[in-house]
Amino acid sequence: MSADVRPITATEHPVWTQTLNRGFLRADPVTPGDVALRAAAGELGRVQGAFDSETGGCVGTFRSFTQELTVPGGATVTASAVTNVSVLPTHRRQGLLTRMMAAEFAAATARGDVLSTLIAAEYPIYGRYGYGPAVYVAEWEIDVPRTGLDPRRPAPAGGGRIDLVDVAEARRVGPALHERIRATRHGVTGRDARWWRLATGEEEFSFRPYKPKLYAVYRTAAGEVAGLVAYRGDDHWTDAKVPLNTLHVEELLAVTPEAERALWHFLCSIDWALRIRTGLRATDDLAPGLLPDPRAAAILTHADFLWVRVLDVVRALGARTYEVPGVLVLEVTDPAGLSGGRFRLDAGTGRCAATGAPADLRIDVAALGSLYLGDGSAVRLGALGQITEERPGALALADAVFRTARKPWSPDIF
Ligand SMILES: CC(C)(COP(=O)(O)OP(=O)(O)OC[C@H]1O[C@@H](n2cnc3c(N)ncnc32)[C@H](O)[C@@H]1OP(=O)(O)O)[C@@H](O)C(=O)NCCC(=O)NCCS
After folding, report:
1. Which residue has a Cα nearest atom 19 of ligand 1?
2. Is 126 a catalytic residue?
3. Domain map of the chain by residue range?
4. Which residues make Cβ contacts (< 8 Å) with residue 5, sequence separation at least 6?
5. Within this chain, domains 3-130 and 137-301 share the same CATH topology
6. How far does residue 307's CA lie from ligand 1's centre (Å)?
7. What is the pLDDT of residues 99-150, one digit of tens each?
């Protein structure tokens, strides 16, 4: 079966949306509202479709958009974020994703994008295209009675105060809080107005109706908003009227450790809550450590989340800062022929440039993606055969240079 791969036209949004839903196993019919939301999000030249050559039907979908990603040190780089990837089961494994990905890379390099990013539905799909898992996330379940926090007293708010607010207030204070976190926390990606509209129920897809949430805001003693939590209970009780509620944290943003402590302790102090599911946090999140007994927080998920594909090595490595000084010459191999070459990184100055000097390390571009945000360990990737050491000690140096004191955090699915 042959197929054409091309950007869609404005009139093709309905069939494209229908195909995407089918590819994602959503049987409900697509509504005009779903189509309008997709159409509003998609910059036309960046929405690709695969069309069966015989029937003309849409059989594959792919979209990218401009995304700002915070890198270690607080700078942002422009990434092309890939999303809405699907190929119908009738047309899978015929190379359609590979063709859409090739078109995307050609366009992204022409635009001058530094990276490509995505959240992988399945681990084995994207390594072949040069993406490496760059940010891992974790979710914990907190067994509230085991935490050691005093259930009889309200949680102290550390000099500040916590107030329940309505969704309109959350929508008002949330974006500025997120921007403050994004300016300092690497791995965080930008959110646009649409993101907030979907998160707070102003817009919704028919297949994912908005679930109302409770919101609480933390203010410092000076009255400045420094934290926000969105959560919901599950109304679970035994027949004997014993409350067994689990609180599901949908979002917890805190710009200071004090705000973070106050919000987690607040959640643990809520009557009826036996358990708290933290939502996806950084793997070194403070939450377990804020409990008198950290073992009350049991890990539910520890998984790869944000994948990074380096498109421009010089600009990518030049954008971030490094933990320790040191000079490394990297021979980057890229089977796709996009970003390979030999590069000298001076971690002390943060400068990166092409070089003819002998290589210290040979590294596949996907492994470079795994190192880039400071989560991956060069020594571990070396042991896994994804980096080859050409100069003794270079792996250990790369480990110290690339890893970051705090882990990256990527809270958003896209
Ligand atoms: C994942 C998906 C988009 C792949 O599309 P496709 O057109 O079948 O992919 P291609 O034919 O271009 O495959 C390219 C290579 O990747 C491999 N591959 C693709 N999907 C894979 C998967 N899910 N697991 C393992 N390998 C996979 C193929 O076997 C092929 O390898 P080969 O060249 O060695 O034979 C498609 O199967 C799909 O829509 N799946 C359900 C939705 C989904 O997971 N989307 C991704 C969201 S992030």
Report:
1. 125
2. yes
3. 3-130, 137-301, 313-402
4. 48, 49, 50, 51, 60, 96, 99, 100, 103
5. yes
6. 16
7. 999 999 999 999 999 999 999 999 999 999 999 999 999 999 999 999 999 8
3-class secondary structure per residue, 90-101: CCCCCCHHHHHH
- Ligand 1: residue whose CA is nearest its atom 29: 93
Q: Say how many residues make up the chain.
A: 414
Report the separation in Å between the CA atom of 71 and the middle of ligand 1, taken as the mean of its atom positions.
29
- Ligand 1 mutation target, pool 88, 97, 100, 126, most atoms within 8 A of CB: 97
Q: Is 414 tagged catalytic?
A: yes
At the second CATH level, the architecture of 3-130 is: 3-Layer(aba) Sandwich (3.40)
Window from 43-47, 75-79, 358-362 with minimum mean pLDDT = 43-47
- CATH architecture, range 313-402: 2-Layer Sandwich (3.30)
Residue of 51, 62, 105, 126 with catalytic role: 126
CB 160, CB 262: distance < 8 Å: yes
> For the segment 180-194, what is each residue's pLDDT rounded down to a tens digit?
999 999 999 999 999
pLDDT at 130: 98
pTM: 0.97
